[in-house]
Design a protein that fits this description.
heterotrimer; A: about 400 residues; mainly alpha; two-stranded antiparallel sheet; disordered N terminus; B: about 400 residues; alpha/beta; eight-stranded mixed beta sheet; five-stranded parallel beta sheet; globular
């Protein structure tokens, strides 16, 4: 938040948590074995809304639809993690990027869009319009990131936080007020979506909201699409992390002044973090617009920004897999509570009360998040890691770990 | 140290409590006198109907509301145990309207079940938070639950836009008690029925009534940022024509509580009336602050403000306000039954929800226990409700488009 | 594609109405100051807690909200009816009621703030959590307090029920009376009460921090917690007092706000005001009580001007753009950070 503190000097004991145990185990597996475990694991997750396991499934909301939202928030969390977790810049207005992404798609494809004077949107109509909009959404949101970042990234800590919060609100208010451009509060309906898998039963394809009966409803399809994108983005961000860019981010997070002195062009890399984070947010927004097929300003309030941040911190900032778990908690917990009935009282009314309590409890018992990131060597980290940890583990399990800062 | 401070803080609090209770008992006689005088001026304020008007703003005699179809019916309805659903915001920032709808429908269901032992109907509620994305997750749950044969909802225009197609595909009759956006009826959804007049009806009628019967020459139009308000304000501005002074039109945001900038403009324009398109939560402080700032214009507003909460919050400042509504005056029996069950006065859209639930349950009681049959029943329905006559066009709009005018006394 | 270009003409949706600003300048100024004074009082709570703990206490807006309910309950206990008036018994009694309601509101807010610190933040401090963890906890507590008032409080009954999703029918404590005209703006008794009390209270808080032994303790902890502890200052005690002071001021602000807006007593009634107050704190220079006052007043006045010039729907945009512009020029706020670099 303020001057970034050093990583986890105060974490209870290194290498003892569940997250660490999983991490050690995972990191010590050879690549092929990682694939052999990772791929089936992803498939199991992908099949969750199809199997609908009895206790896990949500009762009041569609499990597939909820999982689709989870995939979007997971993308958001990964993007925000680049900014908050990796680079240590507190961004409270991330919802603004989400909004820009959703609005780009909606403005180009919705028949209600004031940007077009006719129903014919040229290139942006027809079955592939949504797909055509996605790169555009990413690029335009990235540009928004530059517009926001250039003047504000010279600010430090909490000043940046409040300025980004203001930016998030400004984006929403612009969407609300510029009626001639965004259709204001009336929103943009009938946003296009990828029209694939058309059949007699689903004349608009499997991604259409009309496909809502049976197990493979549109929620599930959107979840699968989202999952594919999450994995793609994970690879992208993972590679960035291991590159010069990622090392610079961590240097900035740990100590910006030192990083600057050591020759890291801090402003440029902070801007990069912002732009990449923004682009991922825009991608998620494009998913949102396609799935809901309706976009209006109400969905992009400050509270959403806070929830996104919760996903990152609860999951464990800096850990791109952890924040996905965080995203799951943020989406799943209120949705799951909603269907429970105790006597006459539906617990759904209290879902945000429970959510608040859960957040506080989680933070008290795991202040560093569920799967906290550990500082480690980034280049050739795996090899060094394997070389060093194996003998150590043989001696005393669980205490090892080459810390970049140790 | 800590302990001392904590104890100190508690002592302060206890002292405050004691002072308060002491003063309470001591001054009870005095404050009774004082507050009864004030109560006379505040709780005496009520919303009373003046006239029923048509789209040209002309007064028309009202139909007999005593013949309204009530949920209890003749008590002889028989049906297998059936379910109807209600979808709308029950949590989050927009919960107030959703809860009004849920409670209105619940009251109808309870009255029906009590009177008809042979036909027990349950109401399942689905919380959308008023959020289109949540609504898109809730909609499949409703359509996939084959026991649900009728729906009241979704509550808002936005979520209806996002999910209307889902219900149309499933052939589930979706009656909305509150979504007033005119465009909703033009999507070709055969299952969409609107239980109240849309914004395009209310706007021109009220505008004509203001310029005609009330004789206003200069009107400022203020709206909030909801879709409902945007539609209504547009219709009103068009209807007012030259009587609208655009220099004093203004926009407020939901949850705004300070309107000094708008009031400054209104004060400068010195209009005959101010029309507010929006909900009572913002209207109450607005009307209070206008009174305080010495604005003498008549306050006119639509159905979003026509709520007991408006007068109870705005108090005597609400006096003299004219309120329109596509809803007829709720009978006292309904009001007291509602108050008994939910410890609250019925609010905006409660009556509509009550009427719509009644229609669905009457249909079920008449043996329409499948989705297609109930849909057909609603499509051909023609009957008097508590609020108005319900008969729909093929688009799902009401055929009668009469508006009631009320004033606050 | 030129349809696209047509659509992007922004100017058509934004008007500039300088005429109204000119005509209503003094009225707008007075009204803006009234709101700004309330912002300032809430901002002090943010600024103090931030100065000492480096924590954005997002739940502070809920402390304010609870204070509104506190004073409302006090008035109910005094025997007033909802949506009634409390000014029928003359000025002296009105003042007594005002003070009782204010003390009650302050007590409720103060206790909530201290309780918040005790339940949510202290366990985190014990575990040496990172600042972001505190922020998330604050968000969590904000949910808890809001939802408690929204859904749990009404279960305890009352007519109309306390809490719930609609605003309470507020009780008007002071009858608005015009006192005099300043240039061409009417100055009401309410205006004077609000601005006056806010000024007095911020002055008291400032004195407390800068002139007393207690304040020296707070400043020392803000500056260097370890050194302060070594010098015999109890960090825990200082932190609790900081929350208490912030809470008490928020409670007072809650009363002043309900004087102005009797219909604002609702579970989510503190949120926007909280964000504005935090912006005010940053605007003036965080950790700086005089800065909070200046930031509050400036924000209140400027957003009022802006909402007349550009239209009321741009009010929040004006507030945030002002904040961003000021921070561009002075990255640590107008008066700069203070508490952290205070003279001891």
């Amino acid at each position: 938040m303020s001057a970034p503190t050093t990583t986890d000097t105060t974490a209870p004991e290194r290498g003892r948590g569940l997250g660490d145990r999983i991490r050690f185990w995972w990191n010590n597996l050879p690549r092929p074995q990682q694939w052999a475990i990772g791929v089936p694991a992803v498939i199991v997750i992908a099949l969750l809304p199809v199997i609908k396991p009895p206790i896990i499934s949500t009762t009041a909301v569609d499990f597939g639809g909820m999982m689709a939202q989870f995939a979007m928030i997971a993308l958001i969390a990964i993007g925000l993690n680049v900014v908050v977790g990796q680079t240590g810049l507190l961004d409270l207005g991330y919802v603004g990027f989400y909004a820009v992404g959703a609005y780009v798609v909606a403005l180009f494809t919705s028949p209600a869009s004031p940007v077009w004077n006719s129903a014919d949107h040229g290139f942006f109509s027809g079955p592939w319009a949504w797909l055509a909009c996605v790169p555009l959404a990413i690029v335009l949101t990235g540009v928004t990131g530059v517009i926001l970042g250039t003047p504000t990234l010279r600010l430090r800590g909490d000043y940046l936080a409040i300025v980004t919060l203001g930016f998030g609100e400004i984006v929403r208010l612009l969407a609300d007020n510029l009626t001639d451009v965004t259709n204001g509060a009336a929103g943009l309906q009938n946003v296009l979506f990828p029209e694939v898998g058309k059949s007699a039963q689903n004349p608009d394809g499997v991604f259409s909201s009309g496909n809502n009966s049976g197990t493979l409803n549109f929620g599930v399809w959107w979840f699968w699409l989202g999952l594919v994108l999450v994995i793609a983005v994970l690879f992208f961000v993972g590679n960035l992390e291991r590159s010069r860019v990622g090392r610079s981010w961590i240097a900035i997070r740990e100590d910006e002044d030192v990083a600057e002195i050591m020759g890291v062009p801090t402003f440029r890399f902070k801007l990069w973090a912002f732009v990449i984070g923004a682009g991922i947010g825009g991608l998620s927004g494009a998913l949102y617009a396609g799935q809901v097929q309706y976009v209006d300003p109400k969905g992009f309030t400050v509270i959403n920004s806070m929830l996104f941040l919760c996903a990152v911190v609860v999951g464990g900032q800096g850990n791109k897999l952890g924040v996905i778990v965080g995203a799951f908690i943020i989406v799943y917990l209120p949705a799951r509570v909603q269907g429970i009935q105790v006597g006459d009282q539906s617990l759904g009314d209290f879902k945000y009360l429970f959510f608040g309590v859960a957040l506080v409890a989680l933070m008290i018992f795991r202040p560093q998040g569920m799967f906290p990131a550990r500082a480690r060597l980034l280049a050739y980290g795996r090899q060094v890691y394997a070389a060093v940890t194996t003998p150590v583990r043989a001696r005393r399990a669980g205490t090892a770990g080459v810390e970049a800062k140790s | 140290m800590n302990r001392r401070v904590t104890v100190g803080a508690f002592a302060v609090a206890m002292a405050a409590v004691l002072t308060v209770s002491a003063c309470g008992s001591k001054s009870s006689g005095g404050s009774e006198g004082g507050s009864s005088a004030s109560a006379g001026s505040s709780s005496g304020v009520t919303i009373a109907p003046i006239a029923q008007i048509d789209t040209a703003g002309k007064e028309v005699p009202s139909a007999d509301a005593s013949s309204a179809v009530l949920p209890a019916g003749d008590g002889k309805a028989t049906c297998p145990a059936s379910t109807i659903a209600m979808a709308g915001a029950l949590t989050g920032d927009n919960a107030a309207l959703g809860i009004n709808i849920r409670d209105g429908a619940q009251l109808a269901v309870d009255q029906h079940n009590k009177a008809n032992p042979g036909c027990q109907i349950s109401l399942k509620t689905f919380d959308t938070e008023g959020d289109p994305q949540k609504a898109s997750q809730v909609a499949p749950q409703i359509t996939n639950d084959q026991s649900i044969i009728g729906l009241i909802g979704p509550a808002f225009s936005g979520e209806t836009k996002a999910t209307g197609g889902v219900f149309a595909q499933a052939g589930l009759v979706a009656t909305t008690a509150s979504a007033t956006n005119p465009a909703l009826a033009t999507n070709g959804w055969k299952t969409f029925f609107r239980g109240l007049a849309n914004d395009d009806v209310q706007g021109p009628a009220v505008a004509k009534y203001m310029t005609g019967k009330l004789g206003f020459k200069k009107v400022c139009v203020i709206k909030d940022d909801s879709e409902y308000a945007a539609g209504l304000a547009k219709a009103i501005t068009t209807g007012l024509g030259s009587a609208n002074d655009s220099s004093c039109n203004g926009d407020v945001k939901t949850k705004d509580r300070d309107f000094s900038a708008i009031i400054t403009k209104v004060n400068a324009a010195k209009p005959d009336a101010v029309f507010y398109a929006g909900y009572y939560a913002e209207a109450a402080p607005l009307v209070q602050q206008m009174k305080n700032a010495g604005v003498e214009a008549t306050f006119v507003s639509g159905d979003g403000v026509n709520d007991p909460q408006f007068v109870s919050q705005a108090g005597s400042a609400a006096k003299g306000a004219d309120l329109s509504c596509p809803c007829g005056p709720a009978p006292d029996a309904f009001k007291s039954a509602y108050k008994t069950e939910f410890n609250q006065d019925p609010g905006v859209y409660s009556v509509e929800a009550y009427d719509l639930a009644t229609i669905l349950m009457r249909g079920i009681g008449a043996g329409n226990t499948t989705r297609p049959k109930l849909l057909e029943y609603v499509r051909n329905y023609d009957g008097q409700g508590l609020a108005r006559t319900y008969k729909w066009t093929s688009d799902g709009e009401l055929t009668s488009s009469l508006i009631w005018m009320y004033d606050v006394k | 594609m030129h349809a696209l270009a047509d659509g992007l003409v922004l100017a058509s949706t934004v008007d500039f109405d300088l005429r109204s600003l000119y005509d209503g300048f003094w009225t707008l100024t007075v009204e803006g100051l009234t709101y700004g004074a309330i912002y300032a009082l809430v901002a002090v709570g943010y600024t103090l807690v931030y100065g000492v703990l480096k924590l954005i206490n997002f739940a502070h807006s809920e402390v304010f909200m609870v204070g509104m309910f506190g004073q409302y309950v006090a008035l109910l206990l005094l025997g007033f009816t909802p949506s009634g008036n409390a000014y029928a018994e003359g000025t002296a009694m009105t003042l007594v009621y005002l003070v009782i309601a204010c003390l009650f509101g302050m007590a409720v807010s103060g206790l909530t703030a201290v309780g918040l610190e005790r339940v949510a933040y202290r366990p985190l401090r014990k575990r040496g959590a990172k600042p972001l963890t505190f922020l998330i906890t604050a968000i969590g507590m904000s949910f808890v307090l809001q939802e408690f008032v929204h859904y749990v409080l009404p279960k305890f009954g009352g007519d109309p029920p306390l809490g719930g999703s609609t605003a309470q029918p507020g009780i008007r404590l002071v009858e608005q009376k015009k006192l005099f005209e300043l240039f061409d703006a009417s100055v009401f008794n309410l205006t004077l009460i609000i601005i006056g009390s806010a000024l007095v209270l911020t002055f008291l808080a400032d004195t407390l921090i800068n002139r007393t032994k207690l304040g020296r303790g707070i400043r020392s902890v803000a500056q260097d917690p370890e050194a302060a502890t070594l010098m015999g200052v109890s960090r825990e005690r200082v932190i609790m007092l900081t929350f208490l002071i912030g809470g008490l001021l928020a409670g007072a602000a809650a009363l002043l706000y309900t004087l102005r807006v009797p219909t604002g007593i609702v579970y989510n009634g503190g949120f926007i005001l909280g964000i504005k107050a935090f912006s005010a704190a940053v605007l003036g220079g965080i950790g700086n009580i005089r800065g909070a006052l200046l930031g509050g007043l400036l924000l209140g006045v400027m957003e009022n001007y802006g909402s007349v010039v550009f239209g009321n729907q741009w009010k929040d945009v004006v507030a945030f753009v002002l904040l961003i512009l000021v921070l561009m020029i002075r990255p640590t706020g107008i008066l700069g950070e203070k508490l952290t670099r205070a003279r001891v």
